[in-house]
Design goal:
With 228 residues, the protein is of the alpha/beta class. It has 8 helices and 7 strands. The N terminus and C terminus are likely disordered.
Amino acid sequence: MHQRRPCKKPNLCLVFQSLTHGLAGDEFPDLKWIPNLCRKTIVYCYDYALCCRLSHFLCLLFPPGEGRKKSVCVYNGLLSSQHNERVLTAFNEDLDTLVVVATIKFGMGIDVRGAEVVVNVGLPATAEDDLQQKGRAGRMSSVDACGITYVEPGIVQSAQLAIRAGAQPEDYKSAASARLVKSAGENIPCELVSDNTIKGCWKTLDPNLQRLHQEKLPLLEALECSSC
């Protein structure tokens, strides 16, 4: 599934994407495009263990050397406040710190600037959480941004079956599938789409704003090629 939803922020596009691999292991093929993008990215995980495993996976995808350690940082409640403050400063100010892998603690009551992409790995607890976390991308109005939620296939399939049956969200057998419909809307495709990239997500931005100027084409090209 590659479902796009309009957003009230004209510089932010919301995307819902089906996972093709589980989240229990140490490799995450669905997310291997992130280092290639070379853009300020926040990756939200639902627990500390996933934070550690995913940050290690992404770190190894960056070129070897001292710069690798700065490219991917971890931010969560198990780490010291001093460490988390350094991560926030680096993400806001250091061009070499491209990715922060975090729990929902990152962004709560703190100033996160310049994020161009936010990725939710797994469906957040509520539709409001999903929108709030994605909304941390594109806070600078001059930045074209994207918020992506990767959803487990079982949740997608359950939501599709409920929609076909005409069920109301409160009657869904799966609370997670009801959250997905509330977040993504009922225009979930009847068949899963194998295209597991974020190609074209910027095409849903308000064309009247003409934000996709020539100087922003490298970002769009990077997205088009992110899974090559």
